[in-house]
Prior knowledge:
Number of strands: 0
Oligomer: single chain
Radius of gyration: 19 Å
Amino acid sequence: MSARTYPTFTESERAELRARQAEINEYLYDANAVIEVASVLEYKFPRQMSTLWDLANSDREGLRRMLVVLHHHSNPNRVWMGGSN
């Protein structure tokens, strides 16, 4: 059985990989926030869900700002990890 080899990365490649991982983590955090808020909205306002999905497809930053507000008002004691409350 041969020893397993792993790729070797330069420092600049590592920095690029870390930046990409941070971008992926931010996207996943936003996606989880969308799911959390959407589940509440879907229950309370089923007809308005199409508007939320349209916004998600057209304006990600606008959606993020809206989620910050919705999240804060739905649970003001919880810290929003994505930035400002």
